[in-house]
């Protein structure tokens, strides 16, 4: 009889307390952490179009840029252009903070100062994306011939 009363009292206390909820939250937090080890939910750079260099306008244009963050909000997208020696020619950082994707046609990267791109050099366009949980997705697109000049 005493044991039944204790069991009933314990169930009543647990029902009124936040212990089961806190335990459940802990379990869900653990499952979210384990999921990140199993599933790659980092941002994905899905489209990097053909880059073009227009010296008259002072822009490098990428015909289309598409980045998606499947598991959360996209935080930043960074576009860099490096030369064949690995020297960074130009860099642009875009603060997204507005959703799970970033799409632009075209993406324009302003070249400041006296930057000129050689007609016979090789350039690489790199895109790096970070989401709200600091997961990173990258892609590099080598432009083995010179950046195309618009016609």
Order of helices and strands: HHEEEEEEEEEE
- Annotation field: number of helices: 2
Class by alpha and beta content: alpha+beta
CATH superfamily of the largest domain: Immunoglobulins
Mean of pLDDT: 77
Q: Number of domains in the coordinates?
A: 2
Distance between the termini: 92 Å
Strand content: 35-45%
For this structure, what is the CATH class of the largest domain?
Mainly Beta
Poorly predicted ranges (pLDDT <50, ≥5 residues)? none
State the share of residues found in helices, binned by percent.
10-25%
Number of strands: 10
Query: C-alpha Rg, in Å?
Result: 25 Å
Strand order of the largest sheet: 6-5-9-10
What is the name of the CATH topology of the largest domain?
Immunoglobulin-like
Overall body shape: elongated
Task: Describe the model.
The protein is α+β, with helices and mostly antiparallel strands. The chain folds into two domains: 2-38; 44-143, Immunoglobulins (Immunoglobulin-like), CATH 2.60.40.10. Helix content is 23%, strand content 40%. The protein is built from two helices and ten strands. It has helices at 2-16, 19-38; strands at residues 44-48, 51-54, 59-62, 65-68, 74-83, 88-95, 101-104, 107-110, 123-131, 136-143. A four-stranded antiparallel sheet has the order 6-5-9-10, with no helix packed on it. A three-stranded antiparallel sheet has the order 1-4-7, with no helix packed on it. A three-stranded antiparallel sheet has the order 2-3-8, with no helix packed on it. The radius of gyration is 25 Å and the shape is elongated. It starts with a helix and ends in an 8-residue tail after the last strand. The relative contact order is 0.20. The mean pLDDT is 77.
């Amino acid at each position: 009889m005493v044991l039944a009363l204790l069991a009933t009292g314990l169930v009543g206390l647990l029902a009124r307390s936040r212990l089961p909820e806190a335990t459940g939250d802990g379990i869900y937090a653990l499952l979210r952490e384990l999921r990140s080890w199993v599933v790659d939910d980092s941002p994905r750079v899905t489209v990097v179009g053909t880059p073009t260099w227009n010296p008259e306008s002072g822009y490098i244009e990428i015909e289309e840029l598409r980045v998606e963050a499947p598991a959360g909000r996209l935080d930043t997208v960074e576009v860099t252009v490096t030369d064949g020696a690995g020297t960074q020619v130009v860099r642009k950082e875009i603060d997204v903070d507005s959703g799970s994707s970033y799409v632009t046609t075209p993406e324009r990267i302003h070249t400041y100062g006296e930057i000129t791109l050689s007609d016979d050099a090789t350039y690489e366009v790199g895109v790096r994306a970070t989401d709200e949980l600091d997961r990173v997705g990258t892609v590099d697109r080598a432009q083995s011939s010179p950046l195309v000049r618009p016609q």
